[in-house]
UniProtKB/TrEMBL annotation:
InterPro entries associated with the record: Na/H_antiporter_dom_sf, NhaA
Protein name: Na(+)/H(+) antiporter NhaA
Pfam family, any one: Na_H_antiport_1
Organism of provenance: Mycolicibacterium diernhoferi
Annotated keywords: Antiport, Cell membrane, Ion transport, Membrane, Sodium, Sodium transport, Transmembrane, Transmembrane helix, Transport
Positions of transmembrane segments: 26-44, 107-128, 140-158, 170-189, 195-212, 239-257, 278-299, 311-334, 346-369, 381-402
Subcellular location, record wording: Cell inner membrane; Cell membrane
Coiled-coil features, chain-numbered ranges: none
Gene field: nhaA
Amino acid sequence: MNRPRLLSLGSWPETRRVTAILRKETVGGVILLIAAAAAIVWANSPWADSYFALRDFTIGGEPFGLHLSLSIGHWASDGLLAVFFFVVGLELKREFVAGDLRDPGRAALPIAAAVGGMVVPALIFVAVATREGGDAVHGWAIPTATDIAFAVAVLAVISTHLPSALRMFLLTLAVVDDLLAITVIAIFYTDSLNITALALAAIPLVIFAVCVQRGVQAWWVLIPLSMATWVLMHESGVHATVAGVLLGFMVPVRRKAQKKAREIEAGMAEYFEHRSRPISAGVAIPVFAFFAAGVSLGGFGGLAGALGHPITLGIVLGLVLGKPLGIFLTTWTLSKVTRAELDSSLRWVDVLGVSMLAGIGFTVSLLIGDLAYSDAAREEFVKVGVLTGSVVAATLASVLLATRNAAYRRIHENETADQDHDGVPDIYQARQD
């Protein structure tokens, strides 16, 4: 009797799709790194005042009583990140409707791992931040997020040939992680709720859903509906980025004429993903990172003091220790409970490397930190913690993955060997025979 396998290869079409996504995320991740570095340098330069003045410059007004007078930094976190979460919504629906994760057995692992990767760092943060007292523990969700663009960028820099199964695991883990994070934001970081505005937000959302279900692609129809949904969600008190996820969920994945076909043709979700992902990875996330990452370190003494603060320390330990422990132990426990074996092409050290890579929290971590605390001092501690934890996690993961580079290259070559030159690696055809 064959035992079930963890992290086995998915289908060839799904692998090609994930590979294409990772290429785009790699470019976006590099831009993100440049934007974050530029913000840190500017915020600690003699011209630091100009950076903070730009970030805090207010744009907008209050037409019809709407609260749209926001700083540029808030426009980036509330507005541009809605584009990022729209892509997250599209990707989630694509994965669970037409991707390999429509199989409950394959979906169970990344979902369980994502939950474990949130619970453990949250517990570590609470244990450490309790020393601060007061409402310091309110930031428990900060170290629970994974930044897929940042993580993939690290892979690109160290030139690691990560096996396809692990690449897919990392991508789906991060996407599910984003869904859990936005759920946490909606439930735990909503201070006041305007029921009327929330109910009104459903009107343009439903109209948007009807339009995309009928195949409408006209930007002059869909963008105003999206903006109306965003504005009303913002007015409701729920973080406006939730509107992005909901809009993504409304987009159909399959073409109606292709529902019974074995190979699903590109539907509306893929159409919007192709057009939205470059904007998300190349503009929305880097601009947010630029305005969110700028923190005045105040020299070595100021940095050392910040690192010793319970909030900062809790974030660093949550990202560096909590994320890999939560993901790795959950995956290992699931293998024991289900008596499943790790795929023969992989080793547990590979899973540990990806788990450590998931400790790179940036975009969503900074967003949650902005929502968790209102005083400037704690916001600075959050930024130092997220930046330090992400850099340490990236460094440790890079060292481990670099030692596995030769093994990854051999696995990659075996997976992509195409002896009959038909465009499909033989290993995928063998699985179907």
